[in-house]
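Agenda item 2: adenosine-5'-triphosphate complex prediction
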Amino acid sequence: MLKTLELDTAMTPTETANRPPAYNLTIVGGDGIGPEVCQAALDVVKAAVGSARTLTCSDFEAGADCYTRTGIAFPKETLEACRSAHAILHGAAGLPGVLYADGTEAGQDFTLQLRNELDLYANVRPIKLYAGVTSALRRFEPGSIDYVIVRENTEGLYASRGGGVVLGDEVATDLMVITRKGVERIVRYAAELARTRNGAPSDGVKRVTIVDKSNVLRSFAFFRKVADEVMADYPDIETDYALTDAMSVYMIERPDTFDVVVSENFVGDLLSDLGAATVGGMGMSAAAELGDGHGYFQASHGTAPDIAGKGIANPVATILSGACMLEWLGHRHDDDYLITCAENIRRATSAALISGAARTRDVGGEARTADCVEAICKALA
Ligand code: ATP
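Presented output:
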C-alpha cells in the first residue's frame, strides 16, 4: 500500500532492518528554472537530513537542452538511473521552442515517458494555503484551503502522445484511453489517502470528489461507473461528484469543501494549475508521482523560461516536493527519521514564509531563490 504525503505525526527515529545503507537519489535538473529549483530543494533536503543518513545524489540529463545537444531528450542511461534509484528528484523539463517535427515539445518526453516506464500512476498534488502567502481568494484563510488532487498519470488523453493521427493538413485526432485497472487503482489510492486525512476544512468530512465529464463522453461515464464501484468499498468516505467545467468554478468559490479530488490525467493537469493559482501560484505547488515500485518528485510547474537564470524562481514547490520524497522514502523503508525530516521541512518552510524571509516576488515578497533557501535552512537549524 502506498503511503500518504501529508501525515502530521512526528515520530522518533528507530533503527530498522528495512533501511538501505544509503539512499541513492537520481537528480535531473532539466531546463529553464529546473536546475535552480532542483538544487534549492536538494540543499534543503540535505540540511534537513544532516549526517544521520547518507543520501547519494547522482546528476543525469534529460529535456530540451539535452535534445538540442544530443538529439535525444531522454537518454537510456538516465532511464536506467531512474529505474535503479530509491527516488528521483526533478526540476522541470521542456522549452517552448524546442520541438519535434510533429510540433510537440521534445523536452516533455522525460516526464511523459518516465511515468509509463516506471508505472507512476498516481500524481499526487497537495493544494494547501500556507500562512504568510496571500491567496488570490483573499476571503479564505490559511488552513481553509487544504486538499489533494490525485491525477491519474499513465492514461487518459495523454496516452495518445505520439500516437495521434494527422491526415494531411486537414484533420487531427488524439484518443482518450480509460481502463478499468487505471481507474480502480487511482480511485483506491484517493480513497486510502482520504482515510489518512482530517477531511475537508469546511466540515471535517472525509470526502473523495470524482471529477469527470460523464454527461458528455462515454469514456468519462465509464470512469465514473468504475469509480463508484471502488468507492462502494469505502462507506466511511463521502463520495462527491463534479463535472470538470463546474469544478473550475467550485475551486474558486468553495475550495474549503474539498478533501481529496480524483480525475483523469488531462483534467487533473488543468485543475492542478488552477488549484496552484489559489494558494499562491505555481511556485507553491508540490507534486509526487508514485507507482508501486518507484517515486518521482517534481513541482507541478514547468520550466518558466521567462524567469530562468535570474535567480528569482520560487523554489518552495520543489522544496515541498523534496519533503514528499523524504516522507515517501521513510514509509517505504520503515525509516521514521525521514518522515520527521519531511515534517521539519514543512514547518521550516511555513515559518520562513510567515516571517517573509522566504517570500519570493511571485508570492508578494522580495526574496531571491538563494534567500529563500537560506531562510528555510536557518529555520530548520
Ligand atoms: P508546463 O506545461 O511545462 O507545465 P507551463 O506552460 O504550465 O509549463 P510554467 O513554466 O509552469 O508554464 O510557467 C507558468 C507561469 O508561472 C510563468 O509565468 C512562470 O514564470 C510562472 N512560474 C512557474 N513556476 C514558477 C516558480 N517556481 N517561481 C515563480 N514563478 C513561476
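Discussion summary: Residues 336-355 form the longest helix (20 residues).
Owner for follow-up: CH.
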